[in-house]
Amino acid sequence: MTAFPDNLAADPPPFDPRAQTQTVFKVQLGICSGLGLVISFLFCVLRRRFPVIYAIRPYRNKNIRMLPGTLFGWIPVLYDISPEEVLQVAGLDAYVFLRFFRMCVKILLVLSVLGIAFMCPVRYWLTGHFDRDLPGSATGAPGGPTGDHSEPPGYLLLCTIFTYVFTLVVYYFMFSETRHIIRTRQRFLGSQKSLTDRTIMITNVPAPMRDETALKTHIEQLGVGRVDSVFLARDYTVLRELFVRREAVRSRLEALYSRYYGLDVHVLRPAAGGAHGAPGVALRGLPGGATGPRRPLLRLGLLGIVGRQVDAIRHFSWLLVHTDGQIRRLKHHAAFRPIPCAFVSMKSVTDAQMAAQALFSPNPSQLETCLAPAPFDIAWNNLLLSSRQVFMRRNVIEMLCMAFSALLIVPIRYITSLLNVQYIKKLWPEFGRYLLAHDTLRTLVTGVLPTYLFTIINTILPYCIYSLCQLQGLPSKGEMELSVVKKNFMYIFFNMFLVFTLFGTFTSYRALLSDTTKIAPLLAKSIESLSLFYVDLIVLHGFTILPLQLLQFGDLLLDFWHCVICRLSQTPRTLRDLFYKPTIFQVGLVLPQHILILIIILIYSVLSTRIMVCGLIYFFVGYWVYKYQLVYSMVHPYHSTGKVWPIVFQRVCLGLFFLHLQMFGTLALEKSYVPAGLIIPLFPTTLIAMMYFKRNYLPLLNYIALDAIKTDGLSVDPGSE
User: Fold this and answer.
1) Contact (CB, 8 A) for 64 and 57
2) What are phi and psi of 566, to 5 degrees?
3) Max Cα separation, the chain?
4) What confidence category does residue 467 fall into, taking pLDDT thresholds of 50, 70 and 90?
5) Tell me: the pLDDT tens digits for 217-244?
6) How far apart are CA 32 and CA 37, in angstroms?
7) pLDDT tens for residues 167-199?
8) Strand, coil or helix: what is 284?
9) Residue 492 near residue 408, CB atoms below 8 Å
10) Gap between the Cα atoms of 258 and 236, Å rounded
């Protein structure tokens, strides 16, 4: 083992929880397995009791199979749903999301088989340990030999060989999955003939061309294709304010009608005539007789307390009619200011694809083109922003996210302190001594509690980043989602992996910065020492958190709030929207965490077969959980057409880079210079793979090939949803 100065690497404390690997792992596995089984059974019960909440999409889309009413009958039905059916009923983005999980299962299955069949037996034969993260199996590991202990040279050379093998396996499946997604995407989008598929969006239109006729003439003169129609976006702020006012009046009027007439609601219980009838809400009818309720009254004065008293239903009915008249007059007579954004529909999808890739103007930041998002996907308010405003917003949000990540270093530092009972003793001496005297409590506090705190932070804080990304001024919700994926991954990778890992071991950061040659060995030592924590984290997520997502606690709380707390504001529209509309599936909040889990597993793959097996279970469970949600209970409406895959590919390549860095540092710690030197050629493979992907695959993930448009593609029936 390479000796470091005392201010860089200190001897591990006598009661470091990382010396209790087996105990903590068994405790975590038992707790999470028990919770997972209880949660899964509870979901089976609740799904039968509330089919509208947990399986609403078959009521809206005739192409989705109805689930049987038996307790476990949904499992074989979900298994029989093919990837092509998922593509048809859930969309391309959901299909790509699930393909990521399938790829992870394939990768980890192969790596686990290689680890169990070859790596573990050879490691046990040479070192006496099946996994390097077991007590005493690593150099300087807690509870193991220290000082001049080193691993056998044959085992270190085996680590180098398997680093090459594992890298090749990951690259093989990544490129194989990329080709499959490209073929599916080209076939799927090449068959679409809708108006959206043959429309391009042009931004930064100069003032002389902010006219439909002038812009159409200019595009046709460029010879990029035949133009069908041009829609120049305009500033409809005044009209939008009227619609907002109308929405408020309509909601108030519907609430008054609902309270006066009463509601006949059957949204949570089966309707008559069917096992699981579609949800329905209707007015009961006009109250009659002298005992009927009085019509609601309203005072027109301050805050509805003083002033003339009028019939509330008639008053808001008059307001609704009056607002409708204002909207009609404004639409017919007002001249709305054009803004520098236009939607140009071409005669064919081929013309649209060619026009979207063409340069329309020799001037920078002028007449910039891209494929148009779907109308419901456009953030219309953001189109009012100028290119300068969008540039400023993007950079300000980027800096805010960086500052946000930097500020979170402090609480993360305290969470890492829980991993070491000696740090706890320094902060709270009485509690630290109590932990030293009680093994079970010490195991729970230092081995189990940090993973739960890590999970809570990792669940809550991405929503803050999501809120910030809404302010960037991006033109479509699909682009916002891709931005959320990037920023959330940057946050969790920097704060929840790098910072957490480095703070777990480094005792002198100033000394580290003064000698950067120690980064790789110290990072390797820190990553290796935290293997217990990450195994527990994967077990927690795979056995408990993923099944817990099936229960959709957020939706249940929202339903309880509207049905019990807000009974006075219930209307047929609000209840139908609440129960009959599927929940939006937010890829930006979900995907980054799973990419990080895959990266962590890859980093530990050579050292720990156990973490690969746990990771295999994690992604297997995750695939079925998200397949159920995307097919039956949730919907992903954004029109990003699978463009999240390049982000996945690049981040997994980053994980391979850290695998190589980890193995290089581990071998350097063992003074095994020849095997460490053999790792060096792997470093440029990450850059080569990313450059090859960008040059040969990325264009096909952004646009449709003309040959794919000419051939017959996949026929998609959107159904009734």
Assistant:
1) yes
2) -105, 45
3) 98
4) confident
5) 999 899 888 899 999 999 999 999 999 9
6) 9
7) 999 999 999 999 999 999 998 888 888 888 899
8) coil
9) no
10) 32
Note the helical H segments in 50-91.
51-54, 57-60, 74-80, 83-90
- In whole angstroms, give the CA distance from residue 252 to residue 255: 5
- Residue 156 φ/ψ, nearest 5 degrees: -65, -40
Contacts of 429 (CB under 8 A, 6+ apart): none
Q: Residues 628-654, buried b or exposed e (16+ Cβ, 10 A)?
A: bbbbbbbbbebbbbbbbbbbbbbbbbb
CB count in 10 Å sphere of residue 198: 24
Contacts for 492 with CB less than 8 Å, ≥ 6 apart: 458, 462, 592, 593, 596
Average pLDDT over residues 42-70: 87
Q: Which two tokens stand for residue 696?
A: 């040969």
| CA geometry: angle 204, 342, 373, nearest 5 deg | 105
The CA-to-CA distance between both ends of the chain, in Å, stands at 63
Strand partners for 218: none
Residue 665 CA to residue 659 CA, distance in Å, equals 10
Tokens of 380: 């219309």
Tokens 């689930």 label which residue? Answer: 67
Cβ of 688: how many Cβ atoms within 10 Å? 10
| Alpha carbon distance 569, 516 (integer Å) | 63
Instruction: Give me 552's structure tokens.
Output: 């959709």
Distance CA 240, CA 233 (A): 14
- Which runs of consecutive H residues, i.e. helices, occur in 553-710? 553-560, 572-580, 587-604, 609-628, 645-669, 673-679, 683-696, 698-702, 706-710
Site of tokens 């391309």:
92
Cα–Cα distances in angstroms (integers) from residue 573 to residues 439, 565, 703, in the given order = 57, 17, 39
Residue 654: both structure tokens together: 């980053």
Backbone angles phi, psi at 336, to 5 degrees: -85, 140
Spatial contact of 239 and 334, defined as CB atoms under 8 Å apart: yes
Distance (Å, rounded) from C-alpha 223 to C-alpha 706? 17
* Contact indicator for 603, 526 with CB cutoff of 8 Å: no
Confidence band of 49 (pLDDT split at 50, 70, 90): confident
Neighbours of 54 (CB within 10 A): 23
Name the token pair of 432. 């630290």
**Angle subtended at Cα 203 by Cα 369 and Cα 587, rounded to the nearest 5 degrees:** 75
pLDDT in tens, 24-48: 677 778 888 899 999 999 999 988 8
* C-alpha–C-alpha distance, residues 332 and 342, integer Å: 21
Phi-psi region of 424 (alpha: psi -120 to 50; beta: other; left: phi over 0): alpha
